[in-house]
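Q: What structure does this chain adopt?
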Amino acid sequence: MANHELIQLDHDPLEFLDGEGIATLVSPQQGVAEVAKADDQEMAATLELYESISGCLNIVGPVALCYTKVGAGFKACLKLAGLEVACANVGLNKCQTLQGNVLLAKASIQVCLQGKCLTYKAQACYRATPFSSWNCANKNGTLLCL
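A:
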């Protein structure tokens, strides 16, 4: 059901997050769960069949992406080292980008609800101590398809 591709990187693609606060939501107003339009009625009806759908996926190290069904969409949350640092609602045929940075982990993850699938594209880094170098990876895949 789920397919995931992990690519180890030899550089830090998230260097821009080092000066940021704990988290940012890149697209705060786009993708808010909305009433489904005519083209989205089938997906909305499918989601309504399920009382609750939720899960978490470990991206790499202490970086995780969690999701929960909310109405006709999903609430997606970025967890870094066990801390929930950013959340956003992802509506039908919409995408959201979550970014965060804590002492030992940082990530930028795009979550999309396209068709009947909830997918992600992630860049994530972690390190063992504040003085060690970052271990970074790109990972993408499907969280679930209905």
